[in-house]
Amino acid sequence: MSNAWRAAIGAAVLGLVVGLFFLLRDDDSSPAAETTTAAETTTGATTTDATDTEPEETTTEAAGASFRVDVPASGPEQVQRLNVRQGDEVEIVVTMGFHDDVHVHGYDLLVHTGPGLPPARFEFTAATPGRFEIETEATHQQIAELRVRP
Fold first, then answer.
1. What pLDDT is stored for residue 48 in this prediction?
2. What's the CATH code of the domain at 131?
């Protein structure tokens, strides 16, 4: 096989790898994928991503934010996306219509709450970037997703 053929095959493979990277990467920064509406939060805006087939999701973003997640007795109606920057001070308050532990994955925070109990309150610095599920422990229902961006 000549050097020209090897170079052509190498370029084709490289092009395929680069193309697959852009096709398969998880990019939430696409403005076409989200629409913004006003919402009742402490600060920030709420966004609904119309491309998901999972339960309805809302996105809240604010620097040094306080978020409230309310879960009715029937279970979560939607998964809230809570967006912050790395280093932000975060407060998440969760009320639930049933008894269960609320767990913030990745930060290993766990609080029990339910009817007649104080809300689960999490206060921490968003030191680790990434996506972290917030779920009920016994029922394994995702109620929110914390997104910490660098």
1. 35
2. 2.60.40.420
Domain residue limits at 54 = 32-149
Residue 59 lies in a domain: yes
Q: Are 43 and 65 in contact (CB under 8 A)?
A: yes
* Any domain includes 56: yes
Q: Which amino acid is at 91?
A: E
- Per-run averaged pLDDT (10 residues), the chain, 150 residues: 72 62 48 31 35 46 78 94 96 97 96 97 96 96 97
Q: How far apart are CA 13 and CA 143, in angstroms?
A: 42
**Is 93 contained in some domain?**
yes
Considering only the C-alpha atoms of the chain, give the largest distance between any 2 of them, rounded to a whole number of Å.
77
The helix (H) or strand (E) run that includes residue 24 is helix 3-24
State residue 27 phi and psi, 5-degree precision: -115, 105
Q: What pLDDT shows up at residue 18?
A: 56
Q: Supply the pLDDT for residue 9.
A: 75
Closest by CA to 84, choosing from 42, 37, 125, is: 125
Q: What is the pLDDT of residue 2?
A: 75
Q: CA torsion sign, 27 to 31 to 33 to 39?
A: positive
